[in-house]
């Protein structure tokens, strides 16, 4: 096979998990003591799409000057995260990813939070392929408004060859094949349509490598949204992959102790002759890896770095209003300019113009409208601790119930997972931007569904078991349930199936027991209503989940406007007894 193959050199610039962070972020840099003869924290403007665009253009020029090919990749999860997504869904991402020059993207789980149709609409506007090589679209219902299967820019699973469809990058006559892999358990953490499903990652990768080798292609790159540890496992299990460029776990690979952050392996981590890289999250950094392939397809050399993309001004406050003295400012900039993991870049005026002309005005308007007042600190925590449960999640669930009833639905109560609430609130005014950009940044709709009382009991127990890994292989503490017009007691040490000791709902101002065989109507996010992370008993419904075309953020914003002010909830409806003692920590 190597007889006609040639050596190849290429630089890949890569980003992942950008989550609609088109604007820069303010980050704190903890400088070594020797820089200013004291331990100093300074704040800098970091990242954003305008800086990514400039950095990628610089990296492309550097690659060409060194006679290397170049390609710019996104390893998935561009959806969700900020007010830009809340307002514009996938449209702004499509326009801006096109503009910064992305050449291929992996399918992330958040792309599927709202089902396949959002992905289909996104792809109708993008100029690059979506690599999703283990996504089987062969049984997709073609009567849908916008089917995915036959779109030219979808490179999914090939049911006939049982391999991933792939693209090739020509490097001076030598092809490099690139295919994508997404999380197998997509149905467990997102909302793909039930007529499409995901194949085993390792099997598809192994089959595809073998298939490519039979085609005479021995230089192979995987664009992955599996997570860093799974990328390493894949490299160990499947031979013949030159590099895995990944996302999902927000891993900022490299040594960042020089600015007060941690260290995660060496960038361009080699595993079983496969180079594994990932570039953090939220558009703060760009990774760039140069691969030098031997004639036989093995990677002879892999080098590069993750670089934080900084502006040139430093302040002593997070609000970036109080600047350093001139002399100190120059010293800090001189130190940082010598660090391999820092790149100073100016903003690309083309990207700035797109943002200014089409998107920023509406975002800025929502950042200044005052809709309610927070009277005291409202803490959000997922699992109740010695200080109690979340003080903001119950208000969020109450907003779902209130909104559903306002729309005419006869709702008994509401349930929401703690991970769907993303921040605490300090006292002061809140704006729509605080709600849609911080508190409830996932643009997921709420749904009405009807189930028997015993299924509610089982779902609450299953969700808490999942959150604390109580006899199950949990997926994280975000599944812990918060409720409105419902209250329960969970005792961790009880026998499985009996851990929900009391379960009552509020009816005409009185608390009455939830009956196992009686059917109740509940409202939840689309994520919870479709049985994710321990909530599977809700899928045994008397009336299937029905979307009411309102997002979580929309419901809470409308609720906040009429409520006008918030205190901590008076009552605790989630009584939680942990396994480590008999004390009621609620």
From TrEMBL:
Residues 11-251 form the Calcineurin-like phosphoesterase domain. SUPFAM superfamilies: 5'-nucleotidase (syn. UDP-sugar hydrolase), C-terminal domain, Metallo-dependent phosphatases. The keyword Membrane does not apply. It comes from the Bacteria. Residues 386-535 form the 5'-Nucleotidase C-terminal domain. The keyword Thylakoid does not apply. Keywords: Hydrolase, Nucleotide-binding, Signal. PANTHER family: 5'-NUCLEOTIDASE, 5'-NUCLEOTIDASE-RELATED. Belongs to the 5'-nucleotidase family. This is Bifunctional metallophosphatase/5'-nucleotidase. It comes from Photobacterium leiognathi.
